[in-house]
Amino acid sequence: MSADELIRRAADVRAVALDDVRGAGSLDGLHDAERRAKAALADVKKGIKDVPGDQRAGVGQALGAAEAAVRDAAEARRSDLEAAARSGAAERERLDLSSLGRDYRRGHLHPVTQTWRALEDIFVGLGYSVFYGPEVEDDWHNFEALNFPPGHPARAMQDTLYVDLGEPEQVMLRTHTSPMQIRLMETQPLPIYAVIPGRTFRRDTMDARHSPVFHQIECLVIDKGITLGHLFGTIDVFFRALFGDVEARFLPSFFPFTEPSAELATSCPFCHKAGCRVCSQTGWIELGGCGMVDPNVFAACGIDSEEYSGFAFGFGIDRIPLLVNQVPDLKTLLWDNDVRFLEQL
Question: What CATH homologous superfamily does 111-342 map to?
């Protein structure tokens, strides 16, 4: 192929490439047009080897001019396309202050927190003060002062989560809210009318009714002339404030820090003792324990049990939203954090 033919081919490729580049409708289309132009000019360049040496310069100049023209046209077209893209983005992202705002749904407190606050409100209405205690406790407040002697099963490693501080098995995550009874008797002037909610920890395997982290609430009263009748009456009033028209039931039991002690239960607020799935067809729902403060506990805190008496009762906060909402699994309530489920409660 002669030099003149190659020059004509370079001119034809240049004309087609310029039309292709200038007509590109997008940056991707422009990239394809540039690729096609480079391929066509490279094909022309292959023919230079067959042209006599003294004529190759003219062909090279024609190819260089074609490449420069295509490159300049591509840069100009790229600038136009990018400017158009920026303009379109600005229009799409423009804030229309005249349009209506997006409707955001308001959330709500977790069911356990709702129950926690409702319980506090009931006790405050009865004249009690609310106290909170440390979640990391020492052996004295968590066990010894509460009449749990060394060797008691509750001190076992399978029940208690110990913290690696100080002497072995002397610092732990509290296993109940009862240590605050001791702290209040050590620091607060008598009489004491206190309610103590909080988070507690035990080395339990997670299942439908157990969790290594759970919530309790505890009531403590210490005054002159306090009797078992005051305890039963307080619980009866409390249950009615929480569940409505229900009855309280007390069955003899044992707790190291109370004497006498009882398991407390409420008549089922859903079936009114007729028997249903919530109360396992028994008509009653067990909630926790109660009793008169043991004289040994008073002695540990330097209180004269001949002059003062008192009662305490407590139960798990988590069990109440389980019952009220008829949720079968504690894990679903405390650990799954499924918003689709929680927003229904």
Answer: Bira Bifunctional Protein; Domain 2 (3.30.930.10)
**Residue ranges of the domains in the chain?**
3-92, 111-342
Place of tokens 């339990």: 204
* Predicted confidence (pLDDT) per residue in 244-293, tens digit: 888 899 999 998 899 999 999 888 888 888 888 777 888 898 888 999 99
pLDDT over 90 percentage in the chain: 35
Q: How far apart are CA 2 and CA 55, in angstroms?
A: 9
In angstroms, the CA 314 to CA 265 distance is 11
How many helices (H) does the chain have, and how many strands (E)? 11, 9
Q: Write out the E strands in the chain.
A: 129-130, 136-138, 171-173, 192-201, 213-223, 248-255, 258-267, 284-293, 309-316
For 182-230, what is each residue's pLDDT tens digit?
A: 999 999 999 999 999 999 998 887 777 778 889 999 999 999 999 999 9
Cis peptide before 252 (omega within 30 of 0): no
